[in-house]
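Summary for the funding panel

The consortium committed to producing paired sequence-structure records for every protein in the target list. Below we show the first two records in order, beginning with the earlier of the two.
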Amino acid sequence: MWKLAPKYYGPYKITKEIGKVAYHLELPPEAAIHYVFHISQTKLKLGKQQGVQHQHPLLIEEFELQLWPETVPNSLEQRAQVHRHAHNFREVQQCTLLSIKTGGCSEDCSYCPQSSRYDTGVKAQKLMTKDVVLEAAKKAKEAGSTRFCMGAAWRDTIGRKTNFNQILDYVKEIREMGMEVCCTLGMIEKQQAIDLKKAGLTAYNHNLDTSREYYPNIITTRSYDERLKTLEFVRDAGINVCSGGIIGLGEAEEDRVGLLHTLATLPTHPESVPINALVAVKGTPLQDQKPVEIWEMIRMIATARITMPKAMVRLSAGRVKFSVPEQALCFLAGANSIFTGEKLLTTPNNDFDADQLMFKMLGLIPKAPSFTEDAEKAPEEESLQEAAS
């Protein structure tokens, strides 16, 4: 059975109660976790001094039983309160994802139409030129996006020096436009992570996809530990980690819990956690998978929010099939980031106009860009309380 990282054990003193659903804990300076804990993550114990309460975050067994909501209505109010404490409740980050090198990937990810092993109609293409990429970034910024993400269908960047150097140039140029920049290029080496940081990269995406246990059913050409190693290189280089997963792959609820537990017990929480609903593409091994229900998305988002309070929880692939009221429930559950633009790599997505209309209908506010030097500073509680009001 999984175990919680030792650094999560207390006891920690409660300095403030947040409504009736969470505690603000007095953590040591070296603690790599957020100071807000939901009540179900903790056990009250009497401290050495009379009347002082301390906290012990739960092990995975209790994590699954108490954090994974049995019903959606019971979880929404609690998650919303924690979300209001850590973020401006109306702010939603808008990101745009562009496939800068499409198709021809050697891997066997069962969900991916860009694998060369499957007949999906996606043709292999070379790396896009700088002019094309920068024009796409410019259009995304004009439409309201503050983060521009570039994806390349590669297993890794080893032996791709020329292409990698071109991408470093793209990163520099887009950063100079005043946008956050993210890349997802497969596995990278330690020095490449350092080079991306020097170029101005804001975040690097490398999803874990699912639990360690279910992972071999989906992918055999890259190990779970290789994914974690890439995240380590990214984190050590000082780049924000973007990592999440996909639901609807045929996994059990325990696998969804396992994925979130792995993410929540990394040395530091990911800056961004994309929650994807499988887009079943004809020609892939998962083409006949049952569509993900909105309630499944809400439960994943709500649990991600409560376990990783400061993260940007991104409502990602599959959003296009959810109505505006359904998406509103996802925002209420804790989502505060979306991908906008007519495509997510090669699959359909909500276009800019539709999202602008949704923002207006729901009273949402676009989130301004936040760069590394600013993102590392903990927000002041006073501003958080003001944002929640």
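The next record, for a separate protein in the list, is shown here:
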Amino acid sequence: MAMLAGIKTGSRSMTRKLVQEGLLWKVKRTLKIDYIVIAGAMNEPSEMIALAPGVPRLGAVYPDPAGWFIVKAVDPQQSKAVTVDGKQTMEWIVSVEMDSEIEAVDPVELPPEVSWGSETQEVVCKKDVINNTEVKTALGDPLKLTRPVTIPVLTVSRYYHAVNFSPEIIYSYTNTLNKETFWGAPPKHVLLKNIQGKYSRIELPDGTKQIFFHATFTFKFRREKDSKEPWTAEILHFGKQYKDENGHTLQAFSQPGNTPIEVRLGPNGEKLKDSDDSHYLKFHIYEEMDFTPLAINNTDIFR
């Protein structure tokens, strides 16, 4: 007869999901636990493994410190051959999934949903990242080289009372940078790239009906070592005028022909020689915003 050996270490997990039934919203909790079962014989069928004493039965009520759950699925899977009391038999992992539903007092009080991903971007590589040598030809001419950089992407979703956040307010945060520290990143290192949202008319357990706004935010994090001034634009410094050695502003003309032309400029507007490295101007193209009113910082979620 199959025998319960214990619960697999680290297998217990619980997830929470907001589900709607008519106009009433509830929090659905799913509890998953993996049980280790030793078969009574090498060829014992999976049906008998699932009936091992101590393994929750399908459809049964399971008491847990987090509440009462209903067993929705019992899935036995062979794990490995083992030897018990000198006899060879089979170890099974029985995955048990249980559901429980409780009414949500207020969707705004639910913890935000957080997920992490990544995105690969190309950045200019001016130096060898190991040897620290400049990216140039043997004769000193600069080379155009980029390298891939993986940046973290954070997605956070939560509910708001609609009276507090209109679409104009919410979407004013799009394409802005963090003004304060956000998820541990210093100011101007996190870009709020995208916001998706929808309105819902939700009936609360007390019978009142309210309008809620559900927003999903997508943030991109710039690694500091990849750029001293993240989220800025670089433009080649050139123009039709330049300053001579006496500080006078002159018009650039082609020789011969005296046709107005654009020339490369240095930091102070001087005309660069063909052998000089190009100079780039940097501009901030994203506004800074205080993300505090959104209440989605890690210090808001993990308190």
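Regarding this second record: Helices lie at 46-50, 167-171, 298-301. The two ends are 47 Å apart (CA to CA).
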